[in-house]
Write a structure and sequence with these properties.
The complex is a heterotrimer of chains A (87), B (387) and C (348).
Chain A: H1 3-17, H2 43-57, H3 64-70, H4 74-84
Chain B: E1 2-4, H1 11-20, E2 25-27, E3 40-42, H2 48-55, H3 64-79, H4 84-87, E4 92-97, H5 106-113, H6 129-139, E5 145-148, H7 154-167, E6 173-180, H8 184-192, E7 216-223, E8 236-244, H9 257-269, E9 279-281, H10 288-301, E10 307-309, H11 312-315, H12 322-335, E11 338-339, E12 361-362, E13 367-373, E14 378-385
Chain C: E1 2-10, E2 27-28, E3 31-32, H1 44-47, H2 52-65, E4 73-77, H3 83-95, H4 104-109, H5 113-122, E5 127-131, H6 137-151, E6 156-163, H7 167-175, E7 202-209, E8 217-226, H8 230-244, E9 253-256, H9 265-275, E10 280-283, H10 285-288, H11 294-308, E11 316-318, E12 327-334, E13 338-345
Parallel strand pairs in C: 4-5, 4-6, 9-10, 9-12
Antiparallel strand pairs in C: 1-7, 1-8, 2-3, 6-7, 8-13, 10-11, 12-13
Helix pairs in contact in C: 2-5, 8-9
The chains are: A mainly alpha (87), B alpha/beta (387), C alpha/beta (348).
Chain lengths: 87, 387, 348
């Protein structure tokens, strides 16, 4: 899958998992920070995103610290999914 | 007082276990969950069947939470010497708290809620009130009956509400406390938040990894000082305060605003200065967030932090029961003039350097502060004093 | 006992905060769903996590808090809080066989989320409590406030009652026989002679204190009871009126919690016999449906009636003899085992 296509898919799934609607994928900037500024997500969202990576891409993240490095922006998530996905 | 916990089914058994530094946390025997063998639990050591038998509780739809409640309630009113007539008198209030209710029957509730059954025996037993409604109907209670749920501070608020009913003349006596049982629901809930430890919990330890869930129930009988007469009195509930941290749904603010306000408010209500507190029964769940925040708040309230410990190292976090169980433990500190050792502690949190009381010690205990902080920022502190 | 000032409700009846309750309901499959407004005051990042009970509560509360930011506490009655989220989480547990689960539903499932979300929204660190005693949840919250205002006479509190229809909760109560098996319209509810009622939901919030000036209504007294015996409840009502109705004054209006369930009629008939022929008789459950904190909707309705001195015709079972209304009684029974009396009076 093309990177841009995967990014689009990840954003759609994020909106679904985190109840972000009426936000659209186009409104989420690929390199904007997910937490704090930018999307304004919090610690519960990061746990939800870890579940999303497991259910949708078969990726196991056990160490929350590792999670923090992956869940920086849509771009960092896409990079990690490309190299680690099992489904 | 009446109590059932992972370390005993009576006040006496709990006292012996606290003195001996007994830990009641181990792998689960009764809880129906994938995690029963994988995670440590503070489980009450009786099956539902044996509780039903000893309590003669064979009504349909009775849940484990209700059984634990009945056990502690019966012991409390017996200890107070109440007749059936006093128990059901319109000026006897009953205030209970729980956060699980009949959701301990996760699988039955799932089937009923999704219409995958024709209706189980538990249709009226799932809500929080069901537990206390069971006691109400079994003992024909006529006074004020209430159920409070403020998450982990629930039963501290039940104690406070009962005391206020007496102060304001809505009751002459109040039976107050709380209960909760282990459930697949809470185990998976706390697990999804990454705050369950796969080891036995270590409150206030630098290496703490989270909490262990526990279960139990405790009830205390409150009466006005002038009505006590020649009756046995364990201690005085001398102060209480309820505040909100107003920060986040599932974690406390770093500075511990809610805990700070609740503790200082309870001291003020008891007309005590911080230096008069001899012992603190800390909330101390063993999670990263709670213990760091509670330590910060303790350092804000107390110039010199008095001896403190968390009995969650003995029994785990019993959620809606914890405030009441720890109230009983605080009263035991006062009645027997002693402190019990905190378990599993190795090294202090660097930022606060606070070390809980680690040994059994006989000493003067005039005033004990007991903390209960919960999800939703609900923080309540109680003060118990020697009469 | 105390004065009610600002009031706000989100319910199946009306546009948010409209003073006339004479609009139409939305009913589908014996469920009266609340009409939710656009929640302009709640940031989208916060709103996305809220279940309906939390949304309705915060929405109604903000309407009051915007005018009265200085609150000395938030006290809520809710039997079930975020019930929908509880069972969504339960469904996850079963579907994923206790595997990796998303915590959002679990965090939202705790009933103290209503009072605590209100506190978070306005950073209110004061007294905060949640009463969950099924059909007497709101009444116990009320009693809490009565005590608070006696302890802190100069304080102001936000008092509320709220519950949501969760499809799952509806199923559980349906299995238990609390809702009608046949579909019934709201207009025909009181003509029904079968067991069960229709489900409802809503949130009603009140700003209360001890100040008489410019109050909407005065809350005079409250009584709660657990019983399944209508004769006993009747006796308690007689005693309640004798004790709390001011000497020389009469009861002008009665708001009855009658809900179309044949089994509960004896309680309401006993109440009607006690209050006599003079009082106007009003019913409200066809507007809000049945839910454990429906008495909070009744209090909201009472405040509207006493303040405007008008009675929407849709409520009337028997016209009042008097044309001015001073004393109003609300009698509500939840499932025939929990009962409450509330006496409310007009403030001239």
């Amino acid at each position: 899958m093309e990177k841009t296509q995967l990014a689009q898919e990840v954003k759609k799934k994020m909106i679904e998992f985190l109840n972000l609607s009426p936000l659209t994928p186009e409104e989420i900037v690929d390199d904007a920070p997910l937490f704090g500024e930018g999307l304004g997500l919090d610690s519960i969202d990061s746990l939800e995103l870890i579940v999303m990576l497991k259910r949708e891409y078969g990726i196991d993240i056990h160490d929350p610290k590792e999670g923090r490095k992956i869940l920086v922006s849509v771009n960092t998530m896409v990079d990690y999914i490309e190299t680690h996905r099992t489904v | 007082m009446g109590i059932i916990s992972p370390i005993g089914a009576s006040v006496e058994q709990n006292l012996m276990a606290l003195r001996a530094g007994t830990c009641g946390i181990s792998k689960g025997n009764f809880i129906q969950s994938k995690y029963s063998e994988l995670l440590p639990f503070g489980e009450v050591k009786f099956s539902n069947e044996s509780l039903e038998e000893t309590l003669n509780a064979h009504e349909p739809g009775v849940t484990r939470t209700s059984l634990l409640t009945l056990h502690a309630f019966k012991d409390a009113v017996e200890d107070a010497g109440f007749s059936a007539g006093i128990i059901r008198s319109p000026d006897t209030a009953f205030i209970g708290a729980d956060t699980v209710g009949g959701m301990c029957l996760t699988d039955e509730m799932y089937k009923d809620a999704n219409l995958l059954s024709h209706g189980s025996a538990y249709l009226a037993s799932y809500d929080f009130a069901s537990v206390n409604m069971y006691i109400q109907s079994r003992f024909h209670l006529q006074g004020i009956v209430n159920t409070i749920n403020t998450a982990c501070s629930s039963s501290a608020n039940a104690i406070m509400y009962g005391a206020r009913l007496i102060q304001q003349g809505y009751a002459t006596r109040a039976i107050v406390g709380g209960s909760d049982s282990l459930s697949k629901f809470t185990v998976n809930g706390f697990n999804s938040l990454n705050i369950l430890s796969n080891e036995i919990c270590k409150p206030f330890d630098e290496q703490r990894k989270g909490l262990n869930l526990g279960e139990g129930a405790a009830f205390l009988v409150l009466e006005k000082e002038e009505d006590v007469g020649s009756k046995k009195v364990y201690a005085e509930l001398s102060g209480f305060c309820n505040k909100n941290d107003a920060y986040h749904p599932s974690s406390l603010s770093e500075v511990g605003e809610g805990p700070y306000l609740a503790m200082s408010g309870a001291l003020k209500a008891a007309s005590l200065s911080p230096s008069q507190i001899d012992f603190i029964n800390a909330h101390g769940t063993g999670t990263e967030n709670n213990d760091a925040v509670e330590s910060a708040a303790l350092l804000r309230v107390f110039e010199k932090v008095p001896a403190f410990a968390s009995t969650k190292s003995n029994i785990g976090h019993t959620l809606g029961a914890s405030g009441a169980i720890e109230a009983v433990y605080s009263v035991l500190n006062i009645v027997h003039q002693e402190m019990y050792p905190a378990l599993h502690f190795q090294s202090p949190i660097p930022a606060s350097s606070l070390i809980p009381n680690l040994s059994y010690e006989r000493r003067k205990v005039q005033h004990v502060l007991s903390n209960s902080f919960g999800f939703g920022g609900n923080c309540t502190s109680l003060v118990f004093s020697k009469t | 006992m105390f004065y009610i000032h600002d009031i706000a409700a989100i319910s199946p009846v009306h546009e948010l905060f409209a003073s006339s309750p004479e609009n139409t309901n939305i009913i589908s499959g014996n469920k009266l769903l609340a009409v939710e407004p656009v929640y302009a005051g709640i940031p989208p990042t916060v709103l996305r996590r809220m279940g309906k009970a939390v949304r309705m509560s915060v929405g109604a509360a903000l309407h009051i808090i915007q005018k009265h930011p200085q609150l000395d506490g938030v006290i809520i009655g809710t039997a079930n809080g975020g019930m929908e989220d509880s069972i969504k989480f339960m469904n996850q547990i079963v579907q994923y066989e206790e595997g990796l689960l998303t915590p959002g539903n679990f965090v939202q499932s705790t009933p103290n989320g209503l009072a605590s979300q209100i506190a978070f929204m306005v950073k209110n660190k004061n007294y905060n409590n949640t009463h969950v005693h099924r059909g007497l949840s709101f009444e116990n919250a009320l009693l809490d406030v009565v005590m608070l205002l006696s302890e802190q006479p100069s304080a102001s509190y936000l008092l509320g009652g709220a519950d949501e229809i969760s499809s799952y909760n509806y199923n559980i109560d349906w299995l238990a026989g609390w809702y009608k098996k046949e579909e019934v319209s709201a207009e025909r509810l009181f003509n029904s002679s079968t067991n069960g009622t229709i489900a409802g939901e809503g949130a009603a919030m009140f700003l209360v204190n001890n100040t008489r000036t410019s109050a909407t209504a005065k809350f005079t007294s409250l009584f709660t009871s657990h019983s399944t015996d209508e004769a006993e409840i009747q006796k308690k009502l007689e005693h309640f009126l004798e004790k709390h109705l001011p000497k020389g004054e009469q009861l002008d209006l009665v708001l009855s919690g009658e809900n179309g369930d044949r089994r509960l009629l004896p309680f309401y008939e006993a109440m009607e016999a006690t209050v006599g022929e003079n009082a106007g008789l009003l019913r409200f459950k066809h507007l809000c449906g049945e839910y454990p904190t429906a008495s909070s909707f009744a209090l909201w309705l009472s405040c509207n009636i006493l303040q405007t001195q008008t009675i929407p015709a849709v409520l009337e079972k028997r016209k009042a003899r008097s044309t001015t209304f001073r004393n109003l009684l609300v009698y509500n029974s939840f499932q025939g085992h929990q009962h409450s009396f509330m006496l409310i009076s007009a403030v001239e």
